[in-house]
Amino acid sequence: MLIHLKAMDEKISEKKKMKMIAVRDEAPKINIGKNGLTENILNEIDRQLNEHEVVKIKFLRSMPLIDEIDIKDLGRKISSTLSAEIIDIRGKTITLYRKQRIYKR
Asked: 21 in a domain, yes or no?
């Protein structure tokens, strides 16, 4: 684990590392199942990123074509669509990070 974090030092800021460590043992906040990745799911991921900066997404076995999809490619597409960064991929679970946006009212 220490070697893995040392390699990440160059890429990830201290705040991101602390968030990643805090989220590591949490259950995924968003589960994607039989309906697949829909516009509503993307909106929910966006909302979670705005609220918490970090979100864990799990792709369930009931998701259509889950065995034929490359999770890394799917994660890259989601992160580029939402302007987020992938900080971890483990199995069928992706952790995304995006700095909180500040809105003026």
From this structure: yes
Two tokens, residue 56: 């864990």
E runs forming strands in 18-65:
30-32, 54-59
pTM here? 0.75
The CATH number of residue 83's host domain is 3.30.110.60
Strand order in the sheet with 30-32: 30-32, 54-59, 93-97, 85-90
Domain tally for the chain?
Answer: 1
By mean pLDDT, which of 15-19, 42-46, 47-51, 56-60 is the weakest?
15-19
* Residue among 105, 104, 89, 88 at smallest CA distance from 19: 88
**CA proximity to 74, closest of 58, 97, 61:** 58
